[in-house]
Every structure is written in C-alpha cells, then in structure tokens.
Amino acid sequence: YGRYTQDLGTFAKDEAARLRLQQGHGEGDTPRPRRPSELLEYTQGRCAPCRVCALQCQQFLISKVGEDWVFLILLGLVMALVSWAMDFAIATCLQAQKWMYGGLDTNVLLQYLAWVTYPTVLITFSAGFTQILAPQAVGSGIPEMKTILRGVVLKEYLTLKTFVAKVIGLTCALGSGMPLGKEGPFVHIASMCAALLSRFLSLFGGIYENEARNIEMLAAACAVGVGCCFAAPIGGVLFSIEVTSTFFAVRNYWRGFFAATFSAFIFRVLAVWNKDEETITALFKTRFRLDFPFDLQELPAFAVIGIASGFGGALFVYLNRKIVQFMRRQKTINRFLMKKRLLFPALVTLLISTLTFPPGFGQFMAGQLTQKDTLVTLFDNQTWAKQGLSDEFEYLGILEAWRHPRSNVFVTLVVFILMKFWMSALATTIPVPCGAFMPVFVIGAAFGRLVGESMAAWFPDGIHTDSNTYRIVPGGYAVVGAAALSGAVTHTVSTAVIVFELTGQISHILPVMIAVILANAVAQSLQPSLYDSIIRIKKLPYLPELGWGHHEKYNVRVEDIMVRDIRYVTLNCKYRDLQHVLHSTKMKSLPLVESAESMILLGSIERAQLGALLSHQLSPQRRLQALRQKVLAEDRHRLSDASICFQISTEASSGALARAAARKPLKSALKRVPSSLSETPP
Questions:
Q1: What's the rounded Cα separation, in Å, for the pair 353 and 378?
Q2: What is the pLDDT of residues 445-501, one digit of tens each?
Q3: Where are the alpha helices (DSSP H) in 594-619?
Q4: For 351-379, how does the pLDDT look when each residue is reduced to its tens digit (9 = 90+)?
Q5: Domains of the chain, with CATH numbers?
C-alpha cells in the first residue's frame, strides 16, 4: 500500500557496491579496471604514496568547490566588497560636491554653477557610458530578474560587460545626489555576480552548468543584493521572495539566508574597519523609548498613514508610467531625444539640481541634505515643533537644514514631500542604472514625520493615560511612513522587516505592520507594483498577476484568445514557400512543424533570424560558391558520359551477344557523346 521495502538511498548504495564488486572480481574474463592515468606517473619512485595522496587531496578540494556553501560565501564576500566600495565612492563624490559648494560661498552665482554642473556631468557620463558599453544596465534590474526567474532567457543581461556598466553607472548616478535608489540595481548586480561565478566555477565541476541550479543561485543572489544594500539579511530574503518569485522553492531558503547574512556581516565589518562605525550597528540607528513606545490611541493615526501611503504609492506608479508614455507618444520629442540621447538626462538633472539649490528654492525643502542625512534627521526622536512654532526647539548640526526663519517645519515638510514626489518619479525615468526604493522610502519617512509633528503639536504634552504622560515621538511616525509608502509602491510587506533591521529597533512592530498591510491593500486595488508597471512599459515576456476586480478573467481559456489561422514553416518547404510565409504575416516568431500533414510542432524560429539566414544563404559569396559547385558537377558529369560503358556478358550469353553483334552495327552497342563541345545544348 505505497510503502517501500527499503529506503531508496540505502538501495542505491547497496546496488552501487554490488556493481563495484562485480567489476573488481571480474565476471569470467573481465579485466580489472586500470588505475587512472593521472595516478600512474605518481605510483613509481620513492615518494609515490605522498604524491598520490597530494593528488587525491587536490581532487577532493576541487570537487568540494562544487558545494553550495563555498559558492554562497564567495557570492556574499564579493557583493559585500562591491557594496562597500561603491558606498565609499558615492560618499566621496557627494563630499566633493559639498566641498565645492562650501568653498565658493563668497559668490552665489559660482555656487549655483558648481551645484548644477557637478551632478549634470556625472549623470551625463553615467548615461553615455551605460549606453555605449551595455544598454541592458539601464534602470532597476528587478523587472528583468522577475522575467529571468520565470525561465525567459534575456540576452546580455547577466554578462561581465553589463556588470561593469551597472557598477560604474550606478556609482556616478548616486554620487550626483539625484533622488535615485540603489536597491533595485543591487539585485541585478548580485544576480550578474552569481551568473559570472557560476561560469567560473563550472571549470571545477559540471554541476554549475545545470540550468535549474543556476536559477536557484540567482534566487539566492537577489536576497544577497537587498541584504548587502541595507545590511538587512532577513528583510532582504523576504523582499526578494516577494518581488521576484511567483513560486518559491523552499530548498533555496537557507541559501538566501546564508549568503545574505554573510554579505551583510562583511559589509558592516568593513565599515568598522574603515573607522566609520565603532561596532556593528544598524545603518540608521534610532533611540526610541522602549518602555512605552506609543499609545494605543495613536493607532488610528498610524492607520491613516497606511491608507494615505497606499494612495500615494499608487499615484507614484501612475505618474512614473505616464511620464514614460508621454515621452514615447510625442513622436517629435521621441525622435529628437533618440538622436540626442544625453540631452534628456542632462535637462532633468539641471532642472532638479536648480530647484534643490540651497540658497534658492532648496531652502524650503532641506535641499543641501543627502538622502542618508535626510533619513537620519527624519528618524530623530526629538520633536521639532510644538504648537506649530519652529523656534521652540534648538536645531543642531544637520537638523539646521529643516529650519527656515520665515516658515515653520510643517511648510518645509509639505514642500519637501510634494517636490521630491514628482522629482523622484521623473528622475527614475532617466536612462541610467537607478532604483526607486530609496527615494520613495525617504518621501514616506517625511510624510510620517509630518503626521508625527502634527500629532505632537495637537497633543503637546502627549496623550493622557491613567497616571503617566508620555510625549509623542514623531520619529516613530517617520519609520511607519517609510515602510508603508515603500511597501505600497513595491507591493511588499517585507519592507516592515527591512525597517526594523535598518533602525535596529522593533518597538513599533504593531503600527508598522498595520500601516504596511493597509497601504498594500489600497495600492494593490488601484495600480500594479512599480516593477510590474516597468515590465508592461518595456513589454517584457512576463504574465503579471491579475489585480483586484479582474477575477472573472480567470475563466478565460487559451482557445478564446489564440490565433488559429497561423502561418508555419515545414521541414521540407522550398524558398518560394518561405518567401510567401514572410510576406503574408507580420508575426515575430514562426512555428516549425514536421510536415503540413502531420503538423507535429518541432519548435519556433524568430522572423529576424529566418530573414538573416535567408540573406546569408543568398549572399553574393554564396551564389558564387554555388555556381562554382554547379560547374564542377557538370564537368564531372560530362567526363562520366564521355567514357564508354561496356556491358560484360557472362559466358552463357556470349554466343548470343556475338550473333546479335553480327546482325547490328557496332555503333549502336557503344554509348557516345558528341565529339565536340559545341554540339552540347547550352
């Protein structure tokens, strides 16, 4: 009843041992297996045992390189080094911009020129370098990884050339200070790293040539990308599963955790080694109250943040898609920008950097702060404003950027949110390697901070409970807003876990989860996720999930939408048939069948590929070659015809042949061709 008499593994071992014994003793006169040829040369001489042992150890080590854990350690190590080196280069670029801006404080015009020229040059270089070396490196990379993990082969997306273009292009793009993210590109970089490592390690063992194995390693690499970007291994694994996988193989779970944890650990150790940190801590460490982090009466405010973030996330995705579609539909603009590819990124950078110029409009939106500094200030656990007055709190250090003498902190936060919202939606359409997670994360944190400051102004002494009074912590609201808006844009819940690992505190777990779930519920009912939206824009071969209100489409069958009157190519078709098929249909791919009678499908061939093959077969060189072959064949045919074919008879028929020969002239018995070539037909 379905129970085996013996475990399969045990049976296989016993069977293998039996076969080995048979080979060893020899069945009848079967010779014993010879010692491997590479060991023969080491078995002679005084040091023979040592040499054999050394060779066997070498073979054992080479076979062990095929183990998963070696691959995952290498992947985590390489990605941590890449992440740290890029962060160092980006910080240096941003520091250089600050130094240039600060050094020219005597002349506002020179300050403006330095503030605007620096990012424009970096973004233009990034766009040009990426376009020349590998256009596949443009954008996030997560939409492409979603498609690749579904089994679609995208050419040139996981090559060394794309890896170099992505790393250098992303470093320049983020070093410019534009509102761009690094999380999506890091998923792509980690996947390319895994693919290149697989190719390298396939020299040691054939297991890395297995396609299914490579897909599993790519799934682990996606987790490593997020893990080493935020030093958040648990959130990274969960986020990669939510974003890239429709169906997730649980056997990959430990791979993702192991590689992401190792990568995050090395990434933070490098920060300690470089004297950036004293010890391994969270990237944006917060110091909220642990004994009473929030009051239950504040939960409605957190729910409002979640619902508003859901609408905001859907609007961001819609705005991003509409900007791209507008650029594509305007034929004149599209044609002009296709000729001048670097003009669009330069113009967008010029516009955004002009608006964020600190002495200009940037003073109303903390324009001089980088994304990292902005997050550090937004997660600050002190209240900036009480009763709506900005002068009651002493601003220290980088918090000074949020203070304006003629407006309060609410105006600054509202202007920051509104301006950064459309700026980020526009900036993520630039053809450079960039993501949208971090800009959205910062906007969400600012919105949460706005709600938190409003609550603090509304209840200056905190919400009264039975005996104790605890003041409201606006930094907690910022954490909730960041998780909610980024979750709404990406349609993920794991942003909650990423936030906990980024801040190093889990005190706001309940409000964060409530806000993220509500934001997802609202956003999923209105728009696809940002990655699905990009997949639709790029027309990648990927079937997105059906959204809310479309469940009746699950009843649609393939036969309801399939094209029935389809042109096809047969194995024995002629040139005329191929030409007819190509002229009569505009389909990009043509099915190849065995014959018109059997209609057995053998595969498909792309229209472009078929056209290229035909043009190659009909090229002038091929025609000359065919003519030469034809002439040679005709010459051989003439020689064979010119030779006389005798019919040798047997002894029995020789007399009959002699009598027939006496009756008939000799000419009829011989096959001749005309003596001169001029008599042959042309």
A1: 21
A2: 999 989 988 888 887 777 766 666 777 788 888 999 999 999 999 999 999 999 988
A3: 607-617
A4: 988 888 888 777 777 777 888 888 888 88
A5: 62-274 (1.10.3080.10), 296-384+401-538 (1.10.3080.10), 564-618 (3.10.580.10)
